[in-house]
Amino acid sequence: MSFLRPLVFAGSCSIALVAFAACGARTDLGAPELADAQEDAPIDHANKDVVDAAQDTIDELPTIDQFVDSPIPTDCPDAGATLVYILSGENDLYSFYPPTLAFTKIGTIACPAANGASPYSMAVDRQGIAYSVFSDGNLFQIDTANASCKATSYQAAPDGTPFHNFGMGFAGNQVSETLYVADASFNANSLGLATLDTTTFTRTFIADFQPELPRCELTGTGDGRLFAFCLFTSSNGSQIAEINPTNAKVIADNQLTVGNPDDAFAYAFWGGEFWIFTGPQGKTTVTEYDPIAFTETNVATLTATVVGAGVSTCAPQ
Question: Positive or negative, the Cα torsion across 33, 36, 39, 42?
Fold first, then answer.
């Protein structure tokens, strides 16, 4: 594949829909460190030359390292938490089981959202509870067992400000997990990484991505690794970047051929591979991506506009 480079071990969305303004990967979306020279480089979100330089730096990064077996976190439940959950712009919640490629519709969510607001992104915790940000910036809590939905006390950022919409994903360790969110807006670079406390529903900014990233979706693992899947904004293709969750620095990068700038998109990590959901309104293709072999395989389709995907950090690595 023309975008892919030889493996180097480093050591360790949405479509511009007419009917849907969402992205969670989305429809409207939206370890080792860099050299000190990159740490000090100023970030100019409006300067195309700086954006191009950031992409050049991405091209020089190592590819994603191998995944190793890690102990299962101690707070993982037994039932159903390792399914991938899918949320569509049509408000339908599905489960997806990678070994069989089977989709199962759980139900249609009825979140108390404002008129016209639709799902933008989704993440799922170890107890099987999903969190979804909608196109109006509000955050809802969804039970993956029955698709019931309720509002949270999260205060949405005003439209046009950072983190009005965001990609989202959990990363954890043996005893806890953290919800990370990446600012996302259509056809613009992300304004950085933050955490979102699911008890107080407060957001804490971490840093700008270094180098900059476009609109991205997040997923993570039970051993603390955090990854961003981002569509290129001016050409077909995409990238998966490994992110240092403490400082938002990009520490590894794999470039893919899947996706185009107008796709709805979402993804999740399961079983050592990334499961990527992309496509135009009303149709989604599932791509299985092996980050070690650099293989992209289209394995399934779904007649729906997938704008969110989430998986527990209890999922196999």
Answer: negative
Model confidence pTM above 0.90: no
For 16-65, what is each residue's pLDDT tens digit?
Answer: 333 333 343 433 322 333 333 333 333 333 334 434 444 555 667 999 88
pLDDT on residue 316:
84
Q: Is the peptide bond before 211 cis (omega within 30 degrees of 0)?
A: yes
* 94, containing H or E segment: strand 92-97
What is the Cα gyration radius of the chain? 17
Token pair 């700008």 in the structure block, residue: 208
Instruction: For the beta carbon of residue 149, count every other beta carbon within 10 angstroms.
Output: 21
Q: Which CATH architecture has domain 36-311?
A: 6 Propeller (2.120)
Angle (CA) 204 205 211, round 5°? 155
H helix intervals, 26-89: 36-40, 48-60
